[in-house]
């Protein structure tokens, strides 16, 4: 969300087939008289030689907050014959109105109207594409499901098809701490003032927003089950509506890891999927890499669907995935080892379900029967989860999950023997368990890990389940205490190569702090091994087309100067005095001066605290401070 340096393996390009003009302050009229603020790059001769338009619609301020990413992408499309627009949603940046919540029907109405307006402009050929990451990926899918006539194709990156199960709010019915954290950040972002250089009425609009801006977590906590609130905007509710050609892209380190496989399996539209090793970032800028030539790949998509050119993009395999292998569970890596694989169908007929039985700390073939299944118990401390990482990591570093050994120590763990040969999995692991708990509310956290001969435990995938949601996410019920229950936990989609000599581990626990809000009381978990199975989607070697991408490039120049570099720290302390575990995440984003005269300073302070023996003591807080200056105009916000 803030300017960052370019990647060491990406190359800046400025020499394009078309000369570019930029319009920094374009206002798009809407049917109700409101306007959306946009920044546009387009070929200089588009007035006489109209071109398709490509839009990205997000609420993060085109003039400063996202400008670094915008300037590294949209001029590239403009230089290859497109009008590329970064549009601020209603209620954000320099657009009119108040942003009242995520993904409202009115947001989709605005974008549909903007698409129709753009298609009629003299510099537009009448054909429009839409792309975005995160919020922009969500609304690309949502608007495509509305089927506006001029929308010819979309590219959705780091998105979801199910707002309840695969966003930052709830997962497996568990409350994610990001449900609060993201709302706190959103409050800060939406409280920033419009730019007085573009709006004489900036003060009135700003005061109106401050008076009416909600703390959206209140909405989200009011809807703790999968009700109509979450079904709205979840394209999985009716895949038949998704007929617009869709390129779906994500990374294995991203929280939004599941939607690509879901799109490929269920959507009727022409589609292709790409999943790399990346966190929540565009694939030409992401760390850890390897990065790919995402802009070139996107251009092939646009040229095929918006200009009717044969770029070969639809001859590519349906599903192209990066298959990582062991990387010492090092979150600081800028690049992870692995290889690209491909599947021409999804679900793939080549992938077979491999069942492993849990018993006596071991994972064995289900038909083996040599293990001695037991009934085992666990009482995990509420602060378990030191190496869980951020729910939505944006870069290499402590946001990425690290060595899981400490978390495994407070889990029930089951290991295979050292593998005789490399084993590749591709798909969604599941763990079927017979369990009982001694409290009416409890969570299950399941991880699949790769354990090296030296004992390093690297997380491959994970899943969580609120046991109150064991039968339904619509009508949950309390857990009958000390009563065995059969439940299944679905883990995230993954692709991974376990190297010969390593062990495959599954870990089961009841706490994953500070990723998941804890159940209110300490829980003792009883697991019945004889009725418990891990099912892995094993991918044997088979002939598939090779996967190749061009090297990563980005456009420029970036129109800002770093006056003062920022710094970040993430620290965990366990007090020997009072026994509390405390997390402190401090982000100083430095001082950025933009070429158009605006200066921004921003910082965030995020805190978590919990007593390991008393989960109801859990607390979290997040505060932001932002300051803006233009000449003698100065404002700041604190949330």
TrEMBL record:
<feature type="region of interest" description="Disordered">
    <location>
        <begin position="386"/>
        <end position="411"/>
    </location>
</feature>
<feature type="domain" description="Xaa-Pro dipeptidyl-peptidase C-terminal">
    <location>
        <begin position="299"/>
        <end position="555"/>
    </location>
</feature>
<dbReference type="InterPro" id="IPR013736">
    <property type="entry name" value="Xaa-Pro_dipept_C"/>
</dbReference>
<dbReference type="Pfam" id="PF02129">
    <property type="entry name" value="Peptidase_S15"/>
</dbReference>
<dbReference type="InterPro" id="IPR050585">
    <property type="entry name" value="Xaa-Pro_dipeptidyl-ppase/CocE"/>
</dbReference>
<dbReference type="Pfam" id="PF08530">
    <property type="entry name" value="PepX_C"/>
</dbReference>
<keyword id="KW-0378">Hydrolase</keyword>
<dbReference type="InterPro" id="IPR005674">
    <property type="entry name" value="CocE/Ser_esterase"/>
</dbReference>
<dbReference type="InterPro" id="IPR008979">
    <property type="entry name" value="Galactose-bd-like_sf"/>
</dbReference>
<dbReference type="InterPro" id="IPR029058">
    <property type="entry name" value="AB_hydrolase_fold"/>
</dbReference>
<dbReference type="InterPro" id="IPR000383">
    <property type="entry name" value="Xaa-Pro-like_dom"/>
</dbReference>
<protein>
    <submittedName>
        <fullName>CocE/NonD family hydrolase</fullName>
    </submittedName>
</protein>
<dbReference type="GO" id="GO:0016787">
    <property type="term" value="F:hydrolase activity"/>
</dbReference>
